[in-house]
Amino acid sequence: MPASAPATALEPSAPPKNVRWVMLGVMLAMLLSMLDNMVVSTAMPTVVAELGGLEHISWVVTAYTLVTAVTTPVWGKLGDLVGRKSTYLTSIAVFIAGSALCGAAQSMGQLIAFRVIQAIGAGGIGAGAFALIGALVPPRERGKYQGMTAAVMAIGTVGGPLFGGFITGHFDWRWAFYINLPIGLLVLVWLGWKLHVPAQRRKVVFDWPGIATLTVSICALVLAASWAGTTYAWASWQILGLGAAAVLGLVLFVLAEKRAAEPLVPMTVFTGHRNFPLAMAILLAVGVVTFGAGLYLPLFQQTVQGASATNSGLLMLPMMVPVLIVSTIAGKVMSSTGRYKIFPVLGMLFLTAGLGLLATMDADTSRLHGAGRHRPGLRHADGRHHRPEQRHPADMGAASSSINLFRTLGGSLGVAVFGSLFARALQGATPAAGDAYLQAVSTGTSHIFLTAAILCALAVVAALFVIEVPLKKTGPPPAADTDADRAAATA
Q1: What is the separation, in whole angstroms, between the first and last Cα of the chain?
Q2: What b/e string do you get for 276-286 counting C-beta neighbours within 10 Å, with b at 16 or more?
Q3: Which of these, 421, 444, 463, lies nearest to 358 by C-alpha position?
């Protein structure tokens, strides 16, 4: 692997004076990509009523999360090679173009195809945000801005259904996509003017074998999770074949990365320090819960508790407010002390407890009681991004994109697996069945939250094994003789 650029040339010793204004544009772009999926989920009943294609409705969400996961590491590596500003602005432009096409879609097939274009841009937005934080801000100061990131993700996840319900109720569903255009263009111009990052450029060598094998592995895994137990039996040749393809693709991907001159995901980020794989396990769990379980709580509120789309969004506020508060406090504490391990440990404990309480909801649970159970759940965000920052700056895009890859992959798997659990619970039940149907929805929702709680309990164990390396206030990372040392502790 070619030698990376010297650390001193790229690692910030202090944040630039206008960094908060720059981060405002970065966070707004990230909010656009986060909000979009949740807004669209709320608007889908109206979309289906106009375009038809009910049998393909899940692919509007699945295609978006799947393509976002696949393209995330590609964008991250591209930022390392040709420059983070140009790649980030390009990803925003692609997202805007995809949004315009989605708003003009005339059939469900077109909408799904245009969502793929939109997702390609979203992959770059997610990968670039964390890399830009790393390029602009010293390790010790990153907690402040990663707290902002956690808050943005919470607003996107929880505020999306509320915003989607408002748009669907007061405007045409196409504005769920068109609203991205003026905001996206504003962000594009703002960052084009304000964003300045340390220059870096290396010889562009695309890791095509890595891209191909990772794509095959992720697609096979998500499709197997989507179809198992519903479309096909678990032991069917289709599911077993997809499982085999996922494993084979992963093996070939690892082999390809070891031989690549510029690997898409350097294996050293996983082997250099145990914190990185531990953090990936935690982020995978967070992704499953945030994207997966987050979709079914509004469904429970609207179907079982009789809330409107707008009111179900308001009922999600008890989840969002604590996240905003705790994320801000945790970021300031981490920046002032350099300590961070306590946050993922406590965060995952709170999340496990909250999901366990949500799993006890049934058809008789009141809206107020259910909203009260939300509150402890989303406090996981206070520990979501607090991790050692010893990655080598030249590989920061690849490492940061790996972080976003696991979160997005977790979301794709969460949507797929929870969708399968929910479909099994509803087998044989129809809305005409009245109370029996409501009970089936309650049972499916309960199974989803119970599964999520178990997964988060395992993530607590992973968080306990994280080694805390105090964060530095300024200056480049310690000198490193190997790629493993350079990439250590990116958890």
Answers
A1: 22
A2: bebbbbbbbbb
A3: 444
CB count within 10 Å of CB 38 equals 26
Tokens standing for 149?
A: 């990131």
Distances (CA, A) of 201 to 193, 333, 395: 21, 35, 12
Rounded CA separation 252/234 (Å) = 25
Q: Cβ distance 303 to 429 under 8 Å?
A: no
Per-residue pLDDT of the chain (491 residues; tens, 9 = 90+): 343 333 334 455 555 667 778 888 888 888 887 777 667 766 776 777 788 776 666 678 778 878 888 888 888 878 877 888 889 999 999 999 999 999 999 988 899 999 999 999 988 887 787 778 777 776 656 666 666 666 676 666 666 666 776 776 777 888 888 989 998 999 999 988 888 876 666 666 778 888 899 889 988 888 887 777 777 888 899 999 999 999 999 999 999 988 888 787 777 767 666 777 787 788 788 877 776 666 677 777 777 777 766 666 666 667 666 766 777 777 777 777 777 788 888 888 888 888 888 888 876 666 555 544 444 333 333 333 334 344 455 555 566 666 667 777 777 777 777 877 887 887 777 777 777 888 888 888 888 889 888 988 988 888 888 887 766 555 444 333 333 333 333 33
| Bridge partners (DSSP) listed for residue 232 | 228
Q: According to the 3-state scheme, what is the secondary structure of 232-254?
A: ECCCCHHHHHHHHHHHHHHHHHH
User: For the residues of 129-156, what is the DSSP string, one character each?
Assistant: HHHHHHHHS-GGGHHHHHHHHHHHHHHH
Q: Where are the strands (E) in 178-246, listed by range?
A: none
What does the longest C-alpha to C-alpha distance in the chain come to? 68
Report CA dihedral (169, 170, 176, 179) to the nearest 10 degrees. Answer: -160
CA 268 vs CA 265, 318, 348, 482: distances in Å = 9, 40, 27, 9
Give the separation between CA 68 and CA 208, rounded to whole angstroms. 18
The two structure tokens encoding residue 220: 């096979």
The pTM of the full predicted model, rounded to 2 decimals, is: 0.69
Q: Do 383 and 348 meet the contact criterion of CB atoms below 8 Å apart?
A: yes
* Tally of residues, the chain: 491
Question: What does the alpha-carbon distance between residue 285 and residue 279 come to, in Å, rounded to a whole number?
Answer: 10
The identity of residue 107, as a single letter, is S
Query: Quick check: 126 and 33 in contact, CB under 8 A?
Result: yes
Name residue, tokens 């994109």: 401
Distance from C-alpha of 162 to C-alpha of 205, rounded to nearest angstrom: 44
